[in-house]
């Protein structure tokens, strides 16, 4: 009975304290699973013009095209988080370091195909805790993950212990 009571207390207090974090994981995780189905979460990947690899624009041309757009989130190289290249679709996705913006550029002719917000990146920042800073992402979120495992184990014990005792009788 003592183990049961300890498990119940641990489970209750961890559950109360971390219910908000678990709710956050669940909601943001669900949205991230479904992000490609909704354009407001993640802009659809465009398809560039037909062409061969030797016709693709260079990195220098790509950055000139992006900076010439005068988008407030793409002023200089420090504003660029990453460039995703999709050779099958013949596009570059240039993603901003700030404000979750994205510019999709045709890899063959250099035309801008899309300028949009990547709300899925903001949701991912909420999901992994990085929206609160690197400390939360690196140190707090792993603790939350461990506590989730503890909640699962103690909850399973709380659920199974009475059933095992009834069967034993």
Indicate how many domains the architecture comprises: 1
Helicity range: 40-55%
In whole angstroms, the N-to-C terminal distance is 15 Å
Give the topology string: H per helix, E per strand.
Answer: HHEEEEHH
Q: In what range is the share of β-strand residues?
A: 5-15%
The total count of strands amounts to 4
Question: On the 0-100 scale, what is the average pLDDT?
Answer: 91
Strand order of the largest sheet: 1-2-3-4
Largest sheet: 4 strands, antiparallel
User: Which word captures the global form?
Assistant: elongated
Radius of gyration: 24 Å
SS class:
alpha+beta
Number of helices: 4
Low-confidence stretches: none
Short précis:
The protein is built from four helices and four strands. It is α+β, with helices and mostly antiparallel strands.
Describe, in plain words, how this protein is organized in 3D.
This protein is an alpha+beta fold and 169 residues long. It has one domain (2-168). Helix content is 51%, strand content 15%. It is built from four helices and four strands; from the N terminus they run H-H-E-E-E-E-H-H. Strands 1-2-3-4 form a four-stranded antiparallel sheet, covered by helices on one side. Strand 2 and strand 3 form a beta hairpin. The radius of gyration is 24 Å and the shape is elongated. The model has no long low-confidence stretch (mean pLDDT 91).
